[in-house]
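ok so for the tutorial part 2 we go from a plain amino acid sequence to predicted structure tokens. step 1 is just haveing the sequence, like this:
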Amino acid sequence: MRRLLVFLCCSSALCLAQLPNSTPTAPTVLTQAQSAFSGGKSVTTVQMNGSASWHYGSDEQTGTVTLIASANGATSVTLGLSGGTRKESFAAWDQNPTCDWTDTDGKNHTNPTHNCLTPSTWFLPSISLQTTLPSTAVAGYVGQESTDAGVVHHVRQQRSIVNATPAAKLWMQKWSTSELMLSAQTLLPAVLKFSIHPDNDAKLDIPVEIHYSDYRLTSGVQLPFKIQKFINNNLVLEIDVDSATVN
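step 2 — the prediction. this is what the tokens look like for a chain of 247 residues:
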């Protein structure tokens, strides 16, 4: 199975501004966003290193972070915090949707499938723009919106399955839905929204928002050097990237 957040390939990032009378489509906007990310350069993996602040209720920790994203959807996030090391990882999109995390005691935990359909490249969604949209994925252009991040192009992405009951199809769409907000000025991701769910309650939605800023050109690729993760409207993780390697 392939995960939802696989997108289309590129063309000029300026086309949208040059066609004011046309109605944008998801493929048009996403291909332009890919061009804005890398200018057509093929990117296989990106590793970003930096500092992190973790806020979870009264738990306040600081430390280092290593983020690795691959164009095939495989990712890993390693947080070396004052309370210990935590790691999360997602398998590549051409595999079954699996993901896990390792706690500060080194114990590995496998996440339920409904939490493995969320965007694996949540810290760098642009790297997924290079990949061809699979037949099981659906992307729709919602429209242009004014947000706290400025004017954005809102693209909704969902995963569909064939040969399944109507109820199963609805659950797949629900668990895999994400909202990608691309800056109307730069066509780079500004905000990504999706939901996670308790391990034992796939029906309960817990909203997640990722905010991206301070984009810098690194080895020909635009990378966000400031990443903020909000869970249930609370800032949980703040990342300041210090260096990055692009392959």
